[in-house]
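Follow-up to my post from last week.
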Amino acid sequence: MRKLSFAPLVFLCFAASPALALSDKPYITAADVDFATMLPPPPAETSPAGQRDLQFIIDRQKNMTPERMAAIHRDLDQSVYTVAGPVLGAKFTKENFPMAGAFFDKVVKDAGVGVGPIKQKYKKLRPFQYSKDVHTPDDIAKAAGGPTYPSGHSTTGALVPIILGMMVPEKREALYDRGWEYGINRITSGAAYPSDWEGGHITAELAVNQMLKNPDFRADFDAVKAEIRKGLGMN
Amino acid sequence: MVRKLFLVTALWLVAATPALALSGEPYFKADQLDMIHLLPPPPAPGSAEQQRDLNAVLNVQKARTPQAAKRAEDDAKVDLFAFADVLGPKFAPDSLPTTVAFFRKVGRETGGVVTVMKDCWERPRPFVASNDVHPPGTMQMENLTLPGAKNTAPHDAESPCRALEPASIYSFSYPSGHSTFGAVTAILLANMVPEKRNQIFTRGWEYGRNRVVGGVHYPSDVEAGRIEATVMVSAMMQNPAFRSDFAAVKAELRRALGLTP
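User reply:
Got it. Predicted complex:
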């Protein structure tokens, strides 16, 4: 009897502050995956691979348009609404899907164990810091905290489609296309190399593979999946 | 003195034994990783991304020198000892029986996953998609499949794999098996010989790139191979049987290369 009367109360709390329902423990810790030994070292700037890396940015910047620059600025934001919005539609906002935003913020933050320490390990300069031929808008340069490899934005651009693609398989391929574009926008801004994108993508895959083994992650994943599918009118 | 003698005997025994026995268990189990759900799908036929991928192959082909073509043809062989480029002439099969057996086992298990992934996405090779792509030497025909080969991937409604196509005479493009091999081998060797970490990774990554040079793969195939390789090695590293074999191989390798244990 007591259990019965308690249940609606719990449910009410859940509905009123959904974001608070997420696990307060990290989905992955530095002890789970040895990112430092798994990730390839970034190519030296003067090596053939490093030169190809730089040339890719210079070529992309040659074809810069105002529309592309606007997209680059929009994609500075790393929330799931910005990354997945173009695929899931205008309804996919923080107001309508509060738990999704908190969940992906946490995923990105926790996957940081595979980003920050690696950046510090190699301390590689950003493309715009290394070459005068790379032109990065001041605000983007200023906001680019820390060394370039691996790219945090590219990690986010991969984490979102991998995980959202499991929640909304109907849109999986479109989500990956969008995640790819998100990473390319970062490269085109001159704040990351293609090899940083690759490093970020590897980090994301390793992180998700590990997170999927964590019951707390799976429970939150299921709750967020339910929120998203219900909100998008999918069953 | 007795102890020393014993050590010498033990060493002699190791040297005379063709290879230490590796674990009979698989290095990873299928439920340890769900590659089909982790790996991005390749660009769809007719998409802008597919066009970009093909253009990249054509641009690399245009810039291909005879030396680069030769190097790509050499790397078409899946050969652990290609890494002698960076590990030196002491990295040779005769003194490394356990190492050879270990990498063969790793190759068999990871290769099985690659085949399923290829059969999942059924992406045609660049030289199939475009008549302008011309692999050098025998690189194209090396990708012919055996007659009667069956598709190994799930294509039911639950699976994200693309709809089942009629069999192709060439194996599929995405992800690149050679790129996977180069990356798996590089990650493992680099963790056994960290002194040469950078050179080993550069060589392993070149393995993948040479597939684009040869026109038998797209850049995205090579990229996916590297990602897949990293996830698979990460999964294997969590397996005690693998770790114990890894330690034995590392010891054999470092001894053969004349490095400190």
